[in-house]
Amino acid sequence: MEVCQGDVLQRVQASPTGRLDETTTLQCFRQLARAVRFLHQHGIAHRDFFLDNVLLQDKSVCKLCDFGLSVSANRVCSDIVGKAYYMAPEVVAESTYDPTAADMWSLGIMLTGSPLTQFALPHKCELTLKMLFGLA
C-alpha cells in the first residue's frame, strides 16, 4: 500500500494563496483525467469526485481514492450520489444518467470551480445550491 501525505484540499488550505500553483494544478488535473479515462476504459464509474478524494503522494503525484460509490460504467443510474457542488445536472434532476458522463462533469468542476484553480463558478455557495437544486 502506498503512503500519501494528505489530500489536495489540505494542501490548498495550507497554501498562503489558498490555491495550488499552476504547474501543480495542471499536473494533478492531467493525472486525474488519465485516472478517469483508465477507470472508464475498464468499466468503472467513480461517481464521487471531489477534492477530499484526491490524495497527494508527493508534491506532484495525485491519487484518486474512495471507490465506495463506484458502479459499472455501463450501468444506467438514477440515484443521487456524490457531493452537491460537483454533481452533474442530470444527477441532481433525479433522472436516469450515464455515470461516466457524470464523472466527466465532476472532473470539470474540479478544474474550473474548485480551490485548485483561480476560477470559481458563481453558484458555489451553499445557499445558491439550495435555491437552485434544493440541496446543501
Automatic annotation (TrEMBL):
SMART domains: S_TKc
Keywords: ATP-binding, Kinase, Nucleotide-binding, Serine/threonine-protein kinase, Transferase
Protein kinase domain mapped to chain residues: 1-136
Keyword Signal: no
Nucleotide-binding is among the record's keywords: yes
GO molecular function: ATP binding; protein serine/threonine kinase activity
Entries under InterPro entries matching the protein: CDPK_Ser/Thr_kinases (IPR050205), Kinase-like_dom_sf (IPR011009), Prot_kinase_dom (IPR000719)
Sequence intervals crossing the membrane: none
Cited Gene3D superfamilies: Transferase(Phosphotransferase) domain 1
SUPFAM superfamilies cross-referenced by the UniProt entry: Protein kinase-like (PK-like)
Name this protein carries in UniProt: Protein kinase domain-containing protein
Organism of origin: Lagenidium giganteum
